Amino acid sequence: xxxxxxxxxxxxxxxxxxxxxxxxxxxxxxxxxxxxxxxxxxxxxxxxxxxxxxxxxxxxxxxxxxxxxxxxxxxxxxxxxxxxxxxxxxxxxxxxxxxxxxxxxxxxxxxxxxxxxxxxxxxxxxxxxxxxxxxxxxxxxxxxxxxxxxxxxxxxxxxxxxxxxxxxxxxxxxxxxxxxxxxxxx
Length: 186
Ligand code: IMP
Prior knowledge:
The protein is α/β, with parallel strands linked by helices. It contains three helices and nine strands. The chain has helices spanning 18-35, 51-58, 111-122; strands at 11-16, 42-47, 66-73, 86-89, 99-107, 127-135, 148-152, 158-159, 175-178. The strands form two sheets. The chain has a six-stranded mixed β-sheet, with helices on both faces. It has a three-stranded antiparallel β-sheet with strand order 1-9-8. Helix 3 links the parallel strand 5 and strand 6 (127-135). It is globular. Bound molecules: inosinic acid. Residues 49, 74-75, 81, 104-112, 157-159, 163 line the site of inosinic acid (IMP). Inosinic acid (IMP) binds next to strand 5, helix 3 and strand 8.
């Protein structure tokens, strides 16, 4: 991080401002409210990355949702996936017969949610949809479609609004491309 501690200076560019994010999140919440009218979906937040998005999104959904939180792991302080997905903390909610919305910060290769949605299908969820703030569809390595996407992003490592690099930058209010100088060896 830059010496004077300004996290914003570590961004190569800003992709989405806080205002643009809030606008997109509000309209996604309205869309989900319409699509799930009369239902009580279970919303599962994938910690830690989706935490900010999840908390903003649920306040724009006018339905009696149940909120659940899981921790999945496939990255280890780096910028590329290992392809192996581990449940670090599971939900104890019985999803049998329930409409489930998985809320993620970003879908990249798709490994994480492909694995997790298969687990929920085995637990007999009635329906499973994927809600993501960001999507990198060109990086997909498995057959996985995001159902609700706020923004598509280019093939670059992005941080902010919940997304991290080595557990930093989550509290940036905008989403931007992290300067490769931060993670590439000099
Ligand atoms: P996937 O399994 O490759 O789809 O990866 C999903 C997870 O990788 C996300 O939940 C993020 O934690 C992480 N990830 C992928 N791309 C980025 C990025 O550009 N910035 C920060 N985290 C990322």
